[in-house]
Write a structure and sequence with these properties.
Blueprint (H helix, E strand, L loop, with lengths): L2 H15 L3 H5 L4 H49 L3 H20 L2 H4 L2 H23 L2 E3 L12 E8 L8 E6 L2 E3 L2 E4 L1 E7 L3
Parallel strand pairs: 2-6
Antiparallel strand pairs: 1-4, 3-6, 4-5
Helix pairs in contact: 4-6
Length: 193
């Protein structure tokens, strides 16, 4: 017997020294022991069930976080060019204005023909770059006003168009995939006075 066992035995004897003699003789019956074991087993089963539920919740939360991060990664990849695209919309607007500013008679003039075709080629390249990154122009002319894509700047009395129909586009609008990059600024028809 080592010192640790001896110390333990002495501590048990000291504790038993204060207990009345008649209580020491009572040994638990088999039924009491079985009840105590059943109660302990029930507690362990409850603890196991609680632990199982906690594991299921933790797995579900981990899966939700994984899905959310995957979606954020996909969105970041899909919409990474948004800031740059907004900056380039001004360039597209200016190129369109430059093309519109050249009168039809000067387009055929040999002195301006190269300039006009160069601006048009630049515009086509810009539109091609936009298309490669999922940037598309919003259709507006002749369509009903869609507040999710169009911004009405003015109303114009018109007997030729249904009220709420876009009759003029002041500035082109663009989408990047399924998100609005910039709304179309439009003039909308209203009933004549």
């Amino acid at each position: 017997m080592n010192d640790e066992d001896r110390n333990r035995d002495e501590a048990v004897e000291k504790e038993l020294a204060g207990v009345p003699e008649d209580m020491l003789d009572d040994e638990p019956t088999a039924a009491e022991e079985a009840n105590a074991l059943d109660a302990a087993l029930d507690r362990l089963r409850e603890d196991l069930e609680v632990a199982k539920q906690e594991v299921l919740y933790a797995k579900a939360e981990t899966q939700n976080v994984r899905r959310r991060l995957e979606k954020e990664k996909d969105d970041a990849r899909a919409y990474a060019a948004t800031g740059f695209a907004r900056d380039m919309l001004g360039v597209a607007d200016n190129l369109a204005r430059a093309i519109q500013a050249v009168p039809a008679d000067l387009r055929e003039d040999d002195r301006f023909k190269g300039l006009v075709s160069g601006i048009e080629a630049t515009m086509r390249e810009l539109e091609k770059g936009f298309a490669q990154h999922g940037i598309s122009r919003i259709a507006a002319m002749g369509l009903p006003l869609d507040p999710n894509q169009h911004q009405a700047m003015m109303e114009l009395p018109s007997a030729d168009f249904e009220p709420g129909t876009i009759v003029q586009e002041m500035q082109a609008g663009y989408m990047i995939r399924d998100r609005l990059l910039r709304p179309s600024m439009v003039v909308v028809a209203k009933k004549p006075d």
